[in-house]
Amino acid sequence: VVTACDCSGSQTGIESWGYRSYGGFTYDDSVTLISNNVTDCGWGMLLARLQDTEVGGGNLFAGCANGILIFSSVGGVRIHDVDVSGAGTGIGVQLASASNVTVERVVARHRATGIHCGPDPGDQGIAIIGCDCSGSEIGFYTDDGYHRSYTLSNNDFSNCTGWGMYLYDIHDTDIGGSNLFTGCANGIYMCRESSGIRIQDVDVSGGGD
After folding, report:
1. Exposure check for the chain: N or C terminus, fewer CB within 10 A?
2. Which is it for strands 113-117 and 43-48: parallel, antiparallel or unpaired?
3. Neighbours of 209 (CB within 10 A)
């Protein structure tokens, strides 16, 4: 448990890379990060090789160039009730080579990318639920890789200046009407052999552009 620590103004506020055992990397289990001050950092948190981990409310990220990076994590990671908004640049939350991660009620407004998944050789089981990425250049972005079985519901991608969602190589995923795209310059973009996608009951209307 890491709680009530002040790491503000650092290059990386809180960083974890697991540890090496014979035969390769193992993973840090059951990590809890709450109520820490990582404001004005390059990355607020850079967390690799974790499982069964909670990044919860009360962590402060104001002024960070980028918010949270989860790397090479196998499951049980939950990020919830944090504000990683910016001033038009950087990434709110990035999941790279990470599967079975839940991002819930996260505010990532006014970023170059609100929530960024990848690059990744093959992630799955990512859930983005009830997040606010409004006013970013791209609300939700899947990078190079093979992304499978995502849950995307009740998210606010409104007023994005580029795309509400930019989906690259994503598969077996439903995009439903609970996601908001009001005021986006462009709605949803899919490319590079994406398959098994169902877009249903979504309003991506614009103002003529």
Report:
1. C
2. unpaired
3. 5
Instruction: Copy the structure tokens of residue 30.
Output: 């059951």
Total length of the chain = 209
Q: Under a CB-based contact definition with an 8 Å cutoff, are residues 66 and 94 in contact?
A: yes
Give the helix, strand, coil percentages of the chain, each rounded to 5: 0, 50, 50
- Give the tokens for residue 77: 């990671």
Query: What does the pLDDT look like over 83-138, one tens digit per residue?
Result: 999 999 999 999 998 889 999 999 999 999 999 998 876 688 999 999 999 999 99
Query: In the structure encoding, which two tokens stand for residue 161, read together?
Result: 């200046």
Spatial separation of the C-alpha atoms in residues 179 and 36, rounded to whole Å:
30
CA distances from 113 to 16, 28, 182, 201 (A): 23, 28, 17, 24
The H helix count followed by the E strand count for the chain is 0, 22
